[in-house]
């Protein structure tokens, strides 16, 4: 009896914790949809007609699975709420592919679909240097001329799963610099290319996919999502979210635009001024600061990036290198790194001794196999 009581208490605590995280404690039961979810549920049928099927939770006929099973709702796939209300996953009925639908208000972000489609069209979309997320389709909803739904691939944050080697991080930097250079060469400033807007294509890393909300779990939330390392299955990295992006006249080599805040609030030129500034220089700060925060500050082993990143995040935008210079300087850095360094495991700064021993042991087992098989320390990404 005591063990049953303990189990019941544990489930109750888990439920309370989950509700608190959602910010819905005292307002919603697990089976109650919040206002963001209701918006999608009300368009379930229309989206199905358009060729996209939402998860069971958003069907008008949905019955919570925990009501008819012995499972706790926190363990059920249909107990997972959206993380961001304007974004949802769906299955494309024509081929069964899981995609992402993003709700965009044209009055708020008039250029997002336009810029996304520009980079998703030929001849740009097939160029390897293009690291802008593909827009498969733009859906219009009945009776709502202001809302567009962008259909995109299901992606994953670029830092997840963990980087297994320094070389994997180096290849990531190369692709990000290449991708931002490509945008700038086509006269587009991203204007919000901070770390949350950098993703990777998980299709090779996660051959059996993962749950789109609980990304550490498999699709039905019955266990962990199994994955390869980036060395085994090299991913391609992408920039997303062109809501603040702008395309400039090619003849204007030094455009000026009023500051517009993105997700990174550390941009020096935005702090005490509303004076127009060069958005391309701000992009250089964004990507440099992302590498500083996600690698230099969090992991040991990427100290070789400090001089370049320090220049990219200088307070004076005019003193920052442009992306052509960043790509050139990084190519020199990359050539100077030997195979031993590239195969080294980056160590998280908050890693405890037990984790370090366990991760180092498994890392060395993989490393020996990769060296024996002649696997490159900086594997090339898959062809577009």
TrEMBL record:
GO molecular function: ATP binding; protein kinase activity
Organism this protein belongs to: Boletus edulis BED1
Domain Protein kinase: from-to ranges: 73-384
UniProt protein name: Protein kinase domain-containing protein
SMART domains linked: S_TKc
InterPro entries: Kinase-like_dom_sf, Prot_kinase_dom
Gene3D superfamilies named among the record's database cross-references: Transferase(Phosphotransferase) domain 1
Record-linked PROSITE patterns: PROTEIN_KINASE_DOM (PS50011)
């Amino acid at each position: 009896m005591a063990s049953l009581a303990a189990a019941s208490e544990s489930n109750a605590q888990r439920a309370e914790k989950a509700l608190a995280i959602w910010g819905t404690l005292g307002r919603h039961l697990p089976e109650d949809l919040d206002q963001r979810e209701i918006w999608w549920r009300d368009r379930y049928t229309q989206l199905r007609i358009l060729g996209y099927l939402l998860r069971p939770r958003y069907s008008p006929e949905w019955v919570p699975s925990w009501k008819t099973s012995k499972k706790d709702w926190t363990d059920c796939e249909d107990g997972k709420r959206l993380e961001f209300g304007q974004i949802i996953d769906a299955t494309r009925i024509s081929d069964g592919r899981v995609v992402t639908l993003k709700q965009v208000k044209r009055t708020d972000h008039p250029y997002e679909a336009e810029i996304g489609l520009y980079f998703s069209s030929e001849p740009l979309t097939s160029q390897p240097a293009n690291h802008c997320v593909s827009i498969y389709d733009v859906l219009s909803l009945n009776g709502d001329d202001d809302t567009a739904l962008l259909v995109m691939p299901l992606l994953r944050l670029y830092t997840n799963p963990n980087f297994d080697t320094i070389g994997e991080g180096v290849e990531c930097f190369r692709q990000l610099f290449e991708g931002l250079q490509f945008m700038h060469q086509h006269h587009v400033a991203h204007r919000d290319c901070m770390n949350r807007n950098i993703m990777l294509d998980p299709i090779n890393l996660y051959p059996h996919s993962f749950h789109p909300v609980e990304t550490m779990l498999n699709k039905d939330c019955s266990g962990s999502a199994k994955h390869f390392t980036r060395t085994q299955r090299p991913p391609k990295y992408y920039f997303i979210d062109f809501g603040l992006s702008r395309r400039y006249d090619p003849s204007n080599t030094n455009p000026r635009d009023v500051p517009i805040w993105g997700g990174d609030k550390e941009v020096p030129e935005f702090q005490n001024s509303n004076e127009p500034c060069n958005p391309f220089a701000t992009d250089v700060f964004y990507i440099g600061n992302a590498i500083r925060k996600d690698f230099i500050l969090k992991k040991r082993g990427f100290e070789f990036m400090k001089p370049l990143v320090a220049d990219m995040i200088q307070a004076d935008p005019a003193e920052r290198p442009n992306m052509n210079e960043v790509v050139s300087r990084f190519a020199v850095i990359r050539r100077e790194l030997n195979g031993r360094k590239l195969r080294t495991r980056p160590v998280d700064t908050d890693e405890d001794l037990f984790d370090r021993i366990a991760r180092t042991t498994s890392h060395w087992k993989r490393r020996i196999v990769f060296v024996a098989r002649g696997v490159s320390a900086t594997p090339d990404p898959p062809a577009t």
